[in-house]
Design brief:
The chain has 191 residues and is an all-alpha fold. The protein has one domain. 52% of the residues lie in helices and 0% in strands. Helix 2 runs antiparallel to helix 3, helix 3 runs antiparallel to helix 4 and helix 4 runs antiparallel to helix 5. The longest helix is centred in the last third of the chain and has 23 residues. It is globular, with a radius of gyration of 21 Å. 23% of the residues are buried.
């Protein structure tokens, strides 16, 4: 049995043991008392850990490339060179093929939320313009392009992926044309 499979089995066993011992409550959480004071939210506010360029390079760029791959090649035909759980290429990994294209599409749609977190900066230190109406429109365009790509990947259709990849390209270009491709270069980005 490989290490990762043994590890998953161990975690499941620990969880089942915790359920049977009562240390994990699998029932619905209790409702707060009507006599209790106001409840404080314990959910931390989202924080920006990466600058905009790092976010693009870490999430948008690699996931877009998986989507672009499926425009003219069948992701189901990508084979892993070795153990899929160790693959660095999502198309040949454990969740490869069309599932990788679906996952990359969802990653783009979800990453759109990361583009609206206050406090994120561009690589030049300028604040990302999260309150600008056009920024919010471009973010929504990325979200919609990700979901269009997801639907095309579910259909396992290269023709539909061609249209979806065009939507991703358009979403990226809309924002890049306005905020990245500045005459002053990096120093003038995000304004």
């Amino acid at each position: 049995m490989r290490f990762h499979t043994a590890f998953v089995v161990m975690l499941v066993c620990l969880f089942v043991a915790a359920l049977s011992s009562g240390s994990v409550n699998a029932q619905e959480p209790s409702k707060p008392s009507v006599h209790a004071g106001p409840q404080k939210s314990t959910t931390p506010a989202p924080q920006a850990s990466a600058n905009l360029a790092q976010l693009m390079r870490a999430i948008m760029f690699p996931n877009s490339n998986v989507i672009f791959f499926a425009q003219d090649k069948n992701p189901a035909e990508v084979k892993s060179a070795g153990d899929p759980s160790l693959a660095t290429d999502p198309l040949s990994g454990t969740f490869g093929g069309w599932a990788a294209v679906e996952n990359s599409s969802l990653a783009l749609a979800e990453a759109a939320n990361l583009l609206t977190i206050p406090g994120r900066v561009c690589s030049n230190g300028r604040a990302v313009p999260v309150k600008n109406p056009d920024w919010l429109k471009f973010v929504q365009g990325l979200r919609e392009a990700g979901m269009a790509s997801y639907k095309a990947a579910q259909a396992k259709s290269n023709d539909k992926m061609l249209d979806a990849a065009d939507a991703v390209t358009t979403a990226c270009s809309n924002c890049h044309d306005r905020y990245r491709e500045k005459p002053g270069g990096i120093a003038d980005r995000c304004i």
